């Protein structure tokens, strides 16, 4: 009977301790081997020095996160640090890395590209190498020490350019999956709403609706006019909302970031059809540039050329940063002649990767 009463009192004591605010669970894994449990008024804090980090594809970047205790502890701790990622397009949150002390494990597409910095006590910053187009999104840093669990988040945004893209047969031929594939084939990815919104603020004006990464269909309008929803509406990014991913057909807004090579206009002795253009780039140690690469060169490398040239998708375009007479519209941009028959004669824009330039 006495043993039973003692067990009940012990259970009541544990429940009372769990009800006390700001308790701290201490598991001495490296202590005296008895794994004693202690409670005190120590509180765990986690914070990020900045809410957002901006970078470009191919970059190395550090997402800040640090933790500390109040009051300060006299002996170092090794809590569990977990980084996870919420894609900008939405969807399930996925694990990036889990670490305890010097031991860590990374997951999926992040394997081999991420590590915890650990430059000072409490440093849990995530170091990412060779950023990819799809790495944009919100990253959560969670620190767990016993029953204490605190977290913060950092948004990773890639610098780049948003551009509208359509099927060679014309406007509104792309399902959501076809839009994803079209962007990937042009060295880009589906744009997010925040990327399209930023491009609208920078002056992107486009009258045709296109898919975004979250499955919505929208278009940016800086100069309202009758054929584009009416001139009585205010400028802004206009939305059709979420559409059926398989049944509905639209254009697409793609996003491309920093080039890992060079786009250039190949100066031929004569204009070429599409097949001859492909051969000319190959003979020059390059390949025909993709639409996303040309847009990135125009936006980020200030490529300006008043000569129309073939691109890999069979379209003919040219980049203008300094509008002038006899060079098309009066606004900067990548101007297009559409998808002419492949036997037509034009120049060509080639692309050499960083390795090919060496």
From TrEMBL:
GO terms for biological process: cell adhesion; central nervous system development; glial cell differentiation; positive regulation of neuroblast proliferation; skeletal system development. Residues 21-157 form the Ig-like domain. InterPro entries: C-type_lectin-like/link_sf (IPR016186), CTDL_fold (IPR016187), Hyaluronan_bind_Proteoglycan (IPR050691), Ig-like_dom (IPR007110), Ig-like_dom_sf (IPR036179), Ig-like_fold (IPR013783), Ig_sub (IPR003599), Ig_V-set (IPR013106). CDD domains: Link_domain_HAPLN_module_2. Residues 161-256, 261-352 form the Link domain. Keywords: Disulfide bond, Extracellular matrix, Hyaluronic acid, Immunoglobulin domain, Repeat, Secreted, Signal. Its main location: secreted. It is found in: Secreted, Extracellular space, Extracellular matrix. The keyword Secreted applies. Disulfide bonds join 207-228, 281-350, 306-327. PROSITE patterns: IG_LIKE, LINK_2. It comes from the Eukaryota. Pfam families: V-set (PF07686), Xlink (PF00193). Residues 1-19 form the signal peptide. GO terms for molecular function: hyaluronic acid binding. SMART domains: IG, IGv, LINK. One of its GO terms (cellular component) is synapse. Belongs to the HAPLN family. This is Hyaluronan and proteoglycan link protein 3-like isoform X2.
């Amino acid at each position: 009977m006495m043993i039973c009463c003692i067990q009940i009192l012990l259970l009541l004591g544990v429940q009372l301790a769990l009800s006390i605010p700001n308790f701290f669970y201490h598991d001495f894994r490296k202590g005296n081997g008895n794994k004693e449990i202690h409670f005190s008024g120590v509180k765990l804090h986690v914070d990020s020095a900045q809410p957002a980090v901006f970078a470009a594809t191919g970059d190395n970047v550090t997402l800040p996160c640090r933790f500390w205790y109040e009051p300060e502890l006299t002996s170092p701790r090794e809590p569990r640090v977990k980084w996870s990622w919420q894609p900008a397009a939405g969807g399930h949150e996925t694990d990036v890395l889990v670490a305890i002390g010097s031991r860590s494990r990374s997951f999926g597409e992040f394997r081999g590209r991420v590590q915890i910095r650990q430059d000072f006590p409490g440093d849990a910053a995530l170091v990412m190498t060779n950023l990819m187009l799809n790495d944009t999104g919100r990253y959560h840093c969670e620190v767990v020490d016993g029953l204490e669990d605190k977290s913060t988040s950092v948004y990773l945004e890639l610098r780049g350019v948003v551009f509208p893209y359509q099927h060679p047969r014309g406007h509104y031929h792309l399902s959501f999956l076809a839009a994803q594939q079209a962007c990937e084939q042009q060295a880009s990815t589906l744009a997010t709403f925040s990327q399209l919104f930023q491009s609208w603020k920078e002056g992107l004006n486009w009258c045709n609706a296109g898919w975004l990464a979250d499955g919505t269909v929208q278009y940016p309008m800086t100069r309202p006019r009758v054929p584009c929803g009416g001139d009585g509406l205010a400028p802004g990014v206009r939305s059709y909302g979420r559409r059926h991913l398989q049944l509905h057909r639209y254009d697409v807004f793609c996003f491309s970031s920093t080039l890992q090579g060079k786009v250039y206009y190949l100066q031929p002795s004569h204009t070429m059809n599409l097949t001859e253009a492909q051969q000319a780039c190959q003979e020059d140690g390059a390949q025909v540039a993709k639409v996303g690469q040309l847009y990135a060169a125009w936006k980020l490398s200030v490529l300006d050329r008043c000569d129309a040239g073939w691109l890999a998708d069979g379209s003919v375009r040219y980049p203008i940063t300094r509008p002038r007479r006899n060079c098309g519209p009066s606004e900067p941009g990548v101007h297009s002649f559409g998808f002419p028959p492949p036997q037509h004669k034009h120049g060509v824009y080639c692309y050499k990767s960083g390795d090919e330039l060496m």
